[in-house]
Amino acid sequence: MKSFLKLLGAGAVVGVAAAAGIASLARTVGDMHQRGQAAGRERTFYARYGKRACDLAISTAALPVVGLVVAGCGLAIKREDGGPIFYNAPRVGQGGREFTMYKLRSMKVDAPDLVMEDGSTYNGADDPRMTKVGAFMRKTSLDEIPQFLNVLKGDMSVVGPRPDLKRETELYQGDEVLKLTVKPGITGYAAVYGRNSLPWHERLALDVHYVRNLSFGLDAQVFLKTFATVLNQEGIYVAQGDEAQLEAGLDPMLRTASESE
């Protein structure tokens, strides 16, 4: 009996010591977590709260412009072919969730999707699917203006990676999937530093760079650069080499109607 009590006492001591060790480890881990949170708080505050506040302010201020552009371009679209004004484009957003992205229709009704060898959607200057009004809207990016409504809804941000089709997200390689950890944008880092003139996977690499370096300063840089890119009409269409490859017979798979960005 005495031996049993001694054994029980020893076990209790070991148990108390183990509990104390676990508690100490938990405090250490907790302290490390708190220090990590303190170190990253300044960096993440904008991503968590400031970015959305900026989105709401800019989109609200842009509403009169949205109204004027939709009215003017909508009338021109109707006069050209009598088709619908809007093209409600299915896209993949943050977290892999699908949403409807609003655009002014720049292509002929029921135009097929021409797919490049890398899986991206063809977007060339001589694209026969594009209407005359659509060509003007593409050059000036006016077809993207309705997306300020997507920003107000919370589907998109003013600045972020341009959203892709679902079939395109299935072709992501390596860390390209990081693109889906943030909201897609009306304009973005890849959209102003290369735009459609860069190969698709190079644009995705720029999107990943943006995600990893997201900050107010970077967003402000992209936002201001957007005006120069649009005014100078930089990188609107795929490079001439890519156009030649498509024309030479690189399987332009005809899929369901869907516009490129």
Can you offer a commentary on this structure?
There is one protein chain. The protein has 261 residues and is mainly alpha-helical. Helix content is 54%, strand content 9%. The strands form 3 sheets. Strands 1-2 form a two-stranded antiparallel ribbon. Strands 3-6 form a two-stranded antiparallel sheet. Helix 1 packs across helix 2. The longest helix is centred in the N-terminal third of the chain and has 80 residues. The N terminus and C terminus are likely disordered.
Number of helices: 8
- Contiguous low-pLDDT stretches (5 residues minimum) are 1-42, 240-261
Largest sheet: 2 strands, antiparallel
Distance between the termini: 82 Å
Overall 3D form: globular
SSE order? HEEEHHEHEHHHHE
Please give the order of strands in the largest beta sheet: 1-2
Count of DSSP E strands? 6
Using the CA coordinates, give the radius of gyration: 26 Å
β-strand amount: 5-15%
Share in helix: 40-55%
The whole-number mean of residue pLDDT values reads 79
Structural class of the helix and strand makeup?
Answer: mainly alpha
Describe the structure concisely for a colleague:
The protein contains eight helices and six strands, in the order H-E-E-E-H-H-E-H-E-H-H-H-H-E.
